[in-house]
Structure formats: C-alpha cells, structure tokens
Amino acid sequence: MKYLDEFQDPELARRLLDEIRATVTRPWALMEVCGGQTHSIIRHGIDQLLPEQVELIHGPGCPVCVTPLEVIDKALEIASRPEVIFCSFGDMLRVPGTGRDLFQVRGEGGDVRVVYSPLDALRIAQRHPEREVVFFGIGFETTAPPNAMTVHQARKLGIRNFSLLVSHVRVPPAIEAIMRSPSCRVQAFLAAGHVCTVMGVGEYPELAERHRVPIVVTGFEPLDILEGVRRTVTQLERGEHTVDNAYPRAVRAEGNPAALAMLEDVFEVTDRSWRGIGVIPGSGWRLSRRYRDYDAELRFAVDGIRTEEPAECRSGEVLQGLLKPHACEMFGTRCTPRTPLGATMVSSEGACAAYYLYRRLQTTPAPREASPVA
C-alpha cells in the first residue's frame, strides 16, 4: 500500500489501519492541533491511508503562523533600531509583516541574529553591555518555559540590557474558541503531546465534557498519529468524550512541575490575538508585574502598533481548519515559500508549507463562506 513502506513498523501500521476501518461506521472530523503533527500526516500520507469516513482537519497549532501581524510589525520596528541586537529563531525571519520581514531589516543594516536558544541571546547581552538585546519569544506552552527561565536568569544576574518580545499562546483556550465557532465541524481533537509534556492534561477534561468531544493526547511519529486516530474513532463510535493519553512515554497527567512553577513565576495569563483569527480571551501569556522591566514591547514603546491582515491571505481560514491549503486561490501561484502572503507558507510547521513541500499542489479554489473563530 502506498506510503506504508516508509513507516518504522509497516505491519503495526496495517493493523492500526485495519482496526480503524473495522470500527468506523459513519463520517467523523478530527482536528490535529499541532503543526508538527500536520507535517507528519502530510509527509507520510496518513490522511490518504485512512478510510474516507475519517477526515483530518488541520488546526492552529503552528506558533509562527498564529503570531499576529501587529507583533511582527513590532519586531520589525524594534529590530530596525541601531542600538538593538534582535535575536530570533530562524523560522521567524521570513514571516511577512506589513511590507517587509526580518530578513529585509537585516539587509537594510539591522543587527538581526538567528539563535538556537533564548540563553544564546542572554549571552550576547552579557558580551555587549552597550547594546540592547531583544529575544523574540513566540510559541505555545512548549517554548514558554525556557523563555521564562531566561528572563528569570537575566533578573537574577542583574543583566539589564536584555528584554523579551512576548507572543506566547495557550492551546486550551484555542480549542474552546474553535468549538464555539458557528462554522465548527470538529468532533474530536488529537492534542499536542509536547504541550501536554509541559502542562499535563488538567485543563482538558472540562473541555471534553463541556463540548462532548474526545481529546486524545498524541505524539508525532506516524504510528503515534494512527494510534491517536484509532482511539479517537473508538470513542466517537461509542458516544464517549473523555481525555485519553496515547503518549504516556512522554506525558504525565501532572505535566512538568518545575516548568509549571517557572511559568507561574514569570508569566501571567492574558488575552492574545492570533493571526488570521482574532483575539481569544485568556489564550496567551505576558510577563508578570515582577518581570515587566524585561518587556521589550514596553521598553521600546511599540505597544500602540495596530495593523490589519491583508485581505488576499486566507491563512486565518486554514488555521481554523475551515480551508485546506490547496483550496486557496493564491496557493502555489502568488503565495509560495519564496513569495509568502502569510506565515502558514513559510513556517516549518505551517499547513500551507506542508502541502507545498510534499507536493499537494492541486488548486481547487473555494468560496469565502467561513466565519472567524473569534
């Protein structure tokens, strides 16, 4: 069967697929929350191996993709200042802001550097006390603890020329917003295993019960995803809606206590805007009052920047699971990895990038009929 030879254990994959086929009796729509899972699904053709009754909907689980345009513009403004060394992970440099990106800022003379850890940025601040060093802190619950630890360390060491531009988001409020959308077709969720490694599963039972949807914590390897789908379909067919940990080798119910303590110390929950979606209440973090001096948004007075998304980019619909990437009329034509209209085409976890990279290029434009999540 196509794709199965790529699996680490093709026979186990066949057994899981056979079980799913034997179990499913009606159409079901499952959303994988994580962009890493989306890339694994598209790369290995998992969505094409599953029976046609099982639809996988790609969710807003790409942290680069959901970073709002106004935050990108704030990053561009800060990075353009001559006194600043602006540090970021590499996948943020191609994300388009209003008219340019961080690569262009660097080409114009801005000191924009790619780092592999927020601690790299802190070390740069130690070596250059005469400069302001800013780290672009984006991501879900997985990247928030190391960013929190870095700010904590900066305060402990008395390093005053370091700050964090924060755009952290949280998964459970996004699930809540998706389920409250009038356009929602999602009947179950494959929850991101790495998020639950940090946070545990404590926030999910209430969501599962309130919206009567199964939530299965799932890993990222092809067999992990098939097992997650199998458990999810089994619950749906039985009329159940519980939280199930299908990734026990990494996830404990209580999460990581040390990481949670660091998050509680450094951050506080706030409303957060998601690119292409809008503001989701309680869906993000900002630096707590104790660490507010390390907030780059306040230090450089860019908190007043407000921007609007370009109308031609439909990445918001892709992030909400309302549109498959190749159904966008711009996909593969005006919007490519070299000329992206939105972050979903340039991020290593973006759904549009996955479809382009793994040659899902058939364009079938769809009418605009989706309502926003928020």
Automatic annotation (TrEMBL):
Q: Name one GO molecular function term.
A: iron ion binding
Known Pfam families for this protein? HypD
Q: Which domain of life is it from?
A: Bacteria
Alphabetically, which GO biological process terms does the record hold?
protein maturation
Keyword tags: Iron, Metal-binding
| Similarity field | Belongs to the HypD family.
What the entry lists under PANTHER family is as follows:
HYDROGENASE MATURATION FACTOR HYPD, HYDROGENASE PROTEIN ASSEMBLY PROTEIN HYPD
Report what the protein is called.
Answer: Hydrogenase formation protein HypD
Name the species this protein comes from: Streptomyces shenzhenensis
